[in-house]
Specification:
The complex is a heterotrimer. By secondary structure, chain A is mainly β. In chain A, 11% of the residues lie in helices and 30% in strands. The two termini of chain A are 26 Å apart. Chain B is mainly beta. Chain B has one domain. A five-stranded antiparallel beta sheet of chain B has the order 1-4-5-6-7, with no helix packed on it. Chain B has a three-stranded antiparallel beta sheet with strand order 3-2-8, with no helix packed on it. Chain B is globular, with a radius of gyration of 14 Å. Chain B starts with a strand and ends in an 11-residue tail after the last strand. The relative contact order of chain B is 0.24. In chain C, 20% of the residues lie in helices and 33% in strands. Chain C has a six-stranded parallel beta sheet, sandwiched between helices. A three-stranded antiparallel beta sheet of chain C has the order 1-2-5. Chain C has a three-stranded antiparallel beta sheet with strand order 4-3-6, with no helix packed on it. In chain C, strand 3 and strand 4 form a beta hairpin. The model of chain C has no long low-confidence stretch (mean pLDDT 92). Chains in contact: A-B, A-C, B-C. At the A-B interface, loops of A face strand 6 of B.
């Protein structure tokens, strides 16, 4: 049943979008729980596998080689935002620096109870970064600041806000939304929104 | 505060459980707090409907609507207590 | 469906719903709007008329909102949308004879109106209602001229005769709670508003079992 004249949020079609997506110009905030508020100096990230573990702070993460990316991001709720600019550390460089290995998958945890998961390959061989800045400024708490994961080639629920731990695992361990019925991998180009898609 | 309360899920919960659940008393599986579902903290701006304990913010219920299906996760609820509806009387 | 323009930014929509068998004061409906390209948005709105009256929702336009500006400025009488309800079994008017205290923040007044219109003539009703300015107060004439409702009207960004300037604080709640018997209290408004009112009620030793709340974003 169509309601005449109803448009919804300003959105538009564009070429080269994954199926079922539309472009928005604002930056919608989606969250499954209370916003986590952390000062940069309070934030820490642990990178570990079964044997090795290394902890990073705001200061030490900035000592690694910095990367700047401009990417399109795609949310499973059908909005996409084009040309977003982020800087931080390439996850591949981070895992090398931490000296972790021997796990085909990664489980990512946030402050709070959020988590997600993916093959390590997806963290390392794409534009995936641990982001410390958005559009040349700090990342707002509502958008996952001070530090979030960004994995732009997968649906945005995989880009964990308030990232706290990256743990290499032998198995693919479903995270928060994956356990609730979202797709274990989440490729927007194959429209992998729900389990079984 | 970026949450609303369980009243906002009255319709979806009625769809899931077949009866109003806002006045039902849920027991949080994380901390044991008992509260009407109406008083839970509800997050609607996400890829699903999330209901959390008002005392500890622990996840209680998540509902995801997709094409023709409603997927419900209630692992964060230890128990539910509802008031019984009065029986209607009839006679032969 | 027909409509009533309540204020410059709010509109009441009277709904034509097949098989409607009435509602309990405080209940709401879930509505779903579908755009021509299939995009859907759902929202909940409280029924603001009394149970015996034609079902009505009162929508306040939220700046930058996806649905409310459409419902206030664009939708025309006769345009269809999907509806589910009435729903709600917690935030509904009780049938006790305790006096009634209604506490409204902004558009939270909508379900409370259903309650004051439903309350029997011999049930004492008191309303404390807070809005940014008088232009945004819906049902103002009704609350001021209604003989049976004792009111206290707060404006947070304005002032004027007949209004109290400033947010509802603990003293304001204490002033409106002057019933002889402990009242049934219903609080509705944005989450932060309801949370602060609940704190004041607790400080004033109002028994929690007599307080019902509805928080919206």
């Amino acid at each position: 049943m169509v309601t005449p004249g109803f448009q919804g949020r300003p959105r538009r079609e564009a070429a080269n979008l994954p199926p079922g997506q539309q472009v928005v110009d604002d930056f919608p905030i989606l969250t499954a729980g209370p916003t986590i508020y952390l000062e940069p100096e309070e934030w820490e990230l642990t990178v570990r596998d079964g044997a090795v573990s290394k902890r990073y702070t705001w200061e030490s993460i900035h000592q690694l080689s910095q990367t700047n990316v401009t990417v399109d991001i795609h949310c499973v709720t059908h909005w996409s935002k084009l040309g977003t600019n982020w800087s931080g550390v390439a996850v591949g460089d981070l895992l090398d620096d931490a000296g972790v290995s021997g796990g085909e998958y990664a489980s990512i945890s946030s402050y709070g109870d959020y988590s997600t998961n993916m093959p390590v390959e997806d963290l390392v061989n794409h534009d995936a970064i641990v982001a410390t800045s958005y559009e040349n400024g700090p990342i707002e708490a509502e958008h996952g600041g001070p530090v979030r994961l960004l994995v732009p080639h997968l649906y945005l629920w995989k880009s964990a806000k308030w990232v706290r731990e990256i743990r290499l695992t032998a198995e693919d361990e479903p995270g928060f939304w994956e356990r609730l019925g979202y797709h274990i991998y989440g490729d927007p180009w194959q429209e992998q929104r729900y389990f079984g898609d | 505060m970026n949450h609303v309360d369980g009243n906002a899920l009255a319709g979806a919960l009625t769809l899931a459980f077949g009866t109003d659940m806002t006045a039902a008393i849920g027991e949080c599986a994380h901390c044991g707090h008992r509260h009407p579902f109406a008083e839970a903290h509800v997050y609607l701006r996400c890829p699903g409907m999330v209901l959390r304990c008002p005392a500890c913010s622990g996840l209680e219920i998540v509902m995801i609507e997709s094409e023709g299906r409603l997927h419900l996760s209630v692992g964060g609820v230890a128990s539910i207590s509802l008031r019984k509806a009065k029986r209607t009387s009839a006679s032969a | 469906m027909s409509d009533v323009e309540e204020t410059e930014s709010a509109r009441s929509l009277l709904l034509d719903i097949p098989d409607w068998s009435g509602h309990r004061p405080g209940q709401h409906v879930d509505i779903r709007l579908t755009a021509a390209d299939g995009y859907q948005a759902t929202r909940s709105y409280s029924l603001s008329n009394g149970p015996e009256e034609i079902p009505q929702i009162t929508v306040e336009s939220v700046e930058g909102g996806e649905v409310s500006p459409f419902l206030v400025d664009t939708i025309r009488v006769g345009d269809p949308f999907e509806i589910r309800g009435p729903v709600g079994g917690y935030f509904v008017l009780d049938e006790s004879d305790r006096p009634l205290t209604l506490i409204a923040g902004g558009s939270g007044v909508a379900p409370l109106r259903s309650m004051w219109r439903a309350a029997p003539a011999d049930r004492e009703v008191r309303l404390i209602y807070s809005a940014r300015n008088a232009d945004r107060m819906v049902f103002l004439d009704e609350v001021r001229s209604g003989p049976d409702i004792i009111t206290r009207l707060h404006l947070t960004r304005d002032t004027g005769p007949g209004f109290v300037g400033g947010r509802i604080d603990q003293n304001a709640i204490a002033a409106i709670l002057g019933h002889l018997q402990p009242p049934s209290v219903y609080v509705c408004g944005p989450t932060a508003f309801v949370e602060s009112v609940v704190t004041f009620l607790r400080e004033l030793d109002v028994p929690q079992e007599n307080v019902r709340t509805e928080r919206f974003g």
